[in-house]
């Protein structure tokens, strides 16, 4: 039975890469949601007149 031994540093590096790669996407999603809200507000304001 051979157990796979992974150095802690490589695990930390891997999690660091995953964190940094997922951050920009979350920011993009946030900006997209904000833009959607602004568009929706503008649409409602236009339709009120």
TrEMBL record:
Top-level taxon in the UniProt lineage: Bacteria
Keywords in alphabetical order: Plasmid
Protein name in UniProt: Uncharacterized protein
Organism the protein comes from: Chamaesiphon minutus (strain ATCC 27169 / PCC 6605)
């Amino acid at each position: 039975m051979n157990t796979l031994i992974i150095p802690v540093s490589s695990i930390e590096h891997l999690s660091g890469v995953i964190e940094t790669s997922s951050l920009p996407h979350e920011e993009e999603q946030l900006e997209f949601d904000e833009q959607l809200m602004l568009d929706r507000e503008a649409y409602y304001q236009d339709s009120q007149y």
